[in-house]
Amino acid sequence: MKRLPLLLLALGLTACASGPETKKKSPLSHLHGENYHSPASPPDNLVIPVTGRKTKASTIKGYAFFKSGLAEVPVKQLTLVLYRNDTAPVAEAQTSLDGEFTFHRALDDGRYTIKPVAGAYDGALAFILEGFEANELRLELVKKAAGKAK
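Below the sequence we write its predicted structure tokens.
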């Protein structure tokens, strides 16, 4: 009778030890996604950043002038057009009495050109916008001959 409990104990231990085999996992298996679970739904205050879109307006400032001898004469009250890649007009501005101009709107980085509308002046200024500001641009214009203004 003393042997019966020992026999049952031995059978119980061998049954536990000879259970179904488990696959050995690599010690790095915790790096796989199987151990990480996301919540069922994202929180209400989740903010997803969007790249490539500006939320702040760009400012492009400059000075439009023509040369008369050695002097720089400001071009007053002239409408200028800002083009993206020389093709698509994106904004207009008018020069002040001092020849200064400002474009203020949201613009992507890239190549831009400023040109006067058809009129008494010719000229263009190409520049690369990187960031939110382009300051101290100098647009030198040439007066058209008296009979050639459109």
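The chain has one helix and nine strands.
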